[in-house]
Amino acid sequence: MNIENYHFHLYYALEEEQIAKATEVLNKLSKDKPGIPIGRIWEKPVGPHPEGSCQVTVEREQFSEMMEYFFENRQGLSLFIHPNTGDDLRDHTEHTVWLGREYQLKTEIFR
User: In 3D, which of 73, 43, 37 has the Cα closest to residue 55?
Assistant: First the structure.
């Protein structure tokens, strides 16, 4: 399997308190780990994601470091992690890691 990089998707409920908590986690990340690409904070489900989410792109050599970072700093929010191999369906179903609550993804978009 050829892994280009990883996506760490921070999940949060679509309510003001949860969005604020996610924003706090991501602001801290941008200060603690400058240069890590942080995507948009979505206030609606997008793509296969059933909740609000924000994508953080992590290079292969940063995977362990970022796993530890999120273990310590996710503030109880869930994190969906997958590699980017070019096979979106398998990356979002077979090659996944969850921190916190697991969610059912809308993977039919990849079929």
Answer: 37
Whole-model pTM: value is: 0.95
CATH 3.30.70.1240 fits 5-110, yes or no: yes
Instruction: Convert the pLDDT of each residue in 30-85 to its tens digit.
Output: 999 999 999 999 999 999 999 999 999 999 999 999 999 999 999 999 999 999 99
**Cβ contacts of 66 within 8 Å, gap of 6 or more:** 6, 8, 33, 36, 56, 58
State the DSSP string of 14-44.
Answer: SSHHHHHHHHHHHHHHHHHSTT--B----SS
DSSP code string of the chain: ----EEEEEEEE-SSHHHHHHHHHHHHHHHHHSTT--B----SS--TT-SSEEEEEEEEGGGHHHHHHHHHHHSTT-EEEEEEESS-HHHHHHTS-EEESS-----GGGG-
- What are the sequence ranges of the domains in the chain? 5-110
